[in-house]
Amino acid sequence: MLGLGRYAISYAEIFGILLKTIQGDVLEDNLAYIILNVRLPRVILAIFVGASLGIAGASFQAIFRNPLASPDILGVASGAGFGAALALLLGLSIYSLTIFAFVFGILTLVLTLFIARDSSNRMMIILGGIIISALFQSLISLLKYLADPQDSLPTITYWLLGSLTVSDLTQCLFCCAGMFLGALVLFVYRWKHNLLMLDDFEARSLGLNVARIRLLFIFASTLIVACVVSICGIVGWVGLIIPHLARILYGSNTASVMPLSLFVGAIFMLLIDTMSRSISAEEIPLSILSSIIGALIFVLILYRSKGGIKL
Prior knowledge:
Elements: H1 11-22, H2 30-63, H3 76-89, H4 94-116, H5 122-146, H6 152-161, H7 169-188, H8 192-196, H9 200-205, H10 210-232, H11 238-250, H12 254-276, H13 286-305
Helix pairs in contact: 1-2, 2-7, 2-10, 2-11, 2-12, 3-4, 3-5, 3-6, 3-10, 4-5, 4-10, 7-10, 11-12, 11-13
């Protein structure tokens, strides 16, 4: 993926640049800048974003026993998007934007669980998420209405459409660390997701503390979504379709689907990012491509399963 883009670079040149960088040589030519400062950070970020959203989607679909569940089902993406939009409206720094998005993403989860009251009731949690998501979507629209149409409004609108452009390496490392931590928790306890797909009474009879483990997985997935939105904007459909593709490839065992979702999600996001910066002279926002391609893939999944998608 490093060689693809509006400016084609051969893989021999890429290998030479990376080798010289490892050896400690200082490179100041345009090719080195494109590879090391533009494409390599994007590729790394795309891998983290796709992999973490993929495993978070698989986790949510197991937690709620719903094949249409996705990482933004609890409204975290809307809350984090509102926090980022508020930071942009106030003209704050990129670090403040990350903090605002992360804090409001966590706040959204807290509000959702407060509305649900009973963390063991999956339906109440989903309904609470729908309510909070609609609330923060309305607040985002309010911020757009209040924003300066010549200055803040285009910035907010474009940022919410999603991009993997890395403007600050420290911010990127912080958000990738959060994605890694959330994905690690889900990966380590991936086998417990099979128990969550049982009836709660059956899961408890096997010694599983259903409420505690469900909250742990929800918080881990929320951490992933908040970190993704805080650096990339809102990226839809990835967490919804990737687990289905993994099940088509490997079957319904969640303990196996989740590791495969990491890999498939990373590949999918790499392809989306490459297309976004290669199709036209101007970069196409991620959410546009992910929604178009994701919808087409989901249609194929429905056609293949004849409308009977299963976990």
